Protein backbone atom coordinates (compact mmCIF):
# COMPACT_ATOMS: atom_id res chain seq x y z
CA UNK A 1 0.00 0.00 0.00
CA UNK A 2 1.39 3.37 -0.98
CA UNK A 3 -0.04 4.98 2.15
CA UNK A 4 0.75 2.61 5.03
CA UNK A 5 3.26 0.21 3.48
CA UNK A 6 1.21 -2.93 4.11
CA UNK A 7 1.86 -5.60 1.48
CA UNK A 8 -0.46 -8.11 -0.17
CA UNK A 9 0.01 -11.24 -2.23
CA UNK A 10 -2.88 -10.44 -4.57
CA UNK A 11 -3.72 -7.19 -6.32
CA UNK A 12 -7.41 -7.41 -5.38
CA UNK A 13 -6.43 -7.57 -1.70
CA UNK A 14 -4.63 -4.24 -2.07
CA UNK A 15 -7.66 -2.73 -3.81
CA UNK A 16 -9.91 -3.98 -1.03
CA UNK A 17 -7.55 -2.62 1.63
CA UNK A 18 -7.26 0.87 0.15
CA UNK A 19 -10.76 1.85 1.32
CA UNK A 20 -9.48 2.05 4.92
CA UNK A 21 -7.54 5.18 3.97
CA UNK A 22 -10.53 6.87 2.33
CA UNK A 23 -13.04 8.85 4.40
CA UNK A 24 -15.89 8.00 2.01
CA UNK A 25 -18.71 5.87 3.42
CA UNK A 26 -20.91 5.22 0.40
CA UNK A 27 -23.03 2.45 1.94
CA UNK A 28 -25.71 4.10 4.07
CA UNK A 29 -28.36 2.40 6.14
CA UNK A 30 -31.86 3.62 5.31
CA UNK A 31 -33.10 2.79 8.83
CA UNK A 32 -30.49 4.56 10.97
CA UNK A 33 -27.55 7.00 10.64
CA UNK A 34 -24.95 4.25 10.16
CA UNK A 35 -22.75 4.26 7.06
CA UNK A 36 -19.97 1.97 5.92
CA UNK A 37 -16.88 1.91 3.74
CA UNK A 38 -17.42 -1.70 2.68
CA UNK A 39 -20.53 -3.32 1.26
CA UNK A 40 -19.90 -6.45 3.32
CA UNK A 41 -20.00 -4.41 6.56
CA UNK A 42 -23.21 -2.75 5.41
CA UNK A 43 -24.80 -6.14 4.74
CA UNK A 44 -23.76 -7.44 8.16
CA UNK A 45 -25.25 -4.35 9.79
CA UNK A 46 -28.64 -5.26 8.33
CA UNK A 47 -28.98 -7.97 10.99
CA UNK A 48 -29.24 -5.21 13.60
CA UNK A 49 -32.60 -4.22 12.15
CA UNK A 50 -33.95 -7.71 11.50
CA UNK A 51 -35.62 -10.28 13.70
CA UNK A 52 -32.99 -12.79 12.61
CA UNK A 53 -30.79 -14.00 15.47
CA UNK A 54 -28.57 -16.69 13.93
CA UNK A 55 -26.06 -17.06 16.79
CA UNK A 56 -27.21 -19.08 19.84
CA UNK A 57 -25.35 -18.92 23.15
CA UNK A 58 -23.97 -22.36 23.88
CA UNK A 59 -24.61 -21.92 27.62
CA UNK A 60 -28.15 -20.55 27.81
CA UNK A 61 -29.54 -20.93 24.28
CA UNK A 62 -30.40 -17.24 23.91
CA UNK A 63 -29.90 -16.11 20.32
CA UNK A 64 -28.14 -13.01 19.05
Automatic annotation (TrEMBL):
GO CC field: nucleus
Swiss-Prot/TrEMBL GO biological process terms: regulation of gene expression
Keywords, sorted A to Z: Metal-binding, Zinc, Zinc-finger
PROSITE patterns linked: ZINC_FINGER_C2H2_1, ZINC_FINGER_C2H2_2
Domain C2H2-type: 1-26, 27-54
InterPro entries in the record: Zinc_finger, Znf_C2H2_sf, Znf_C2H2_type
Domain of life: Eukaryota
Molecular-function annotations in GO: zinc ion binding
Pfam families: zf-C2H2
The keyword Transmembrane is annotated on this UniProt entry: no
PANTHER family assigned to the protein according to its UniProt record, in alphabetical order: GROWTH FACTOR-INDEPENDENT 1B TRANSCRIPTION REPRESSOR, PR DOMAIN ZINC FINGER PROTEIN
Protein name listed in UniProt: GFI1 protein
Taxonomic source organism: Oreotrochilus melanogaster
Upper lineage: Eukaryota, Metazoa, Chordata, Craniata, Vertebrata
Amino acid sequence: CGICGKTFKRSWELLSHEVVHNEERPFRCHLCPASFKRHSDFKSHGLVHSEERPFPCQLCGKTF
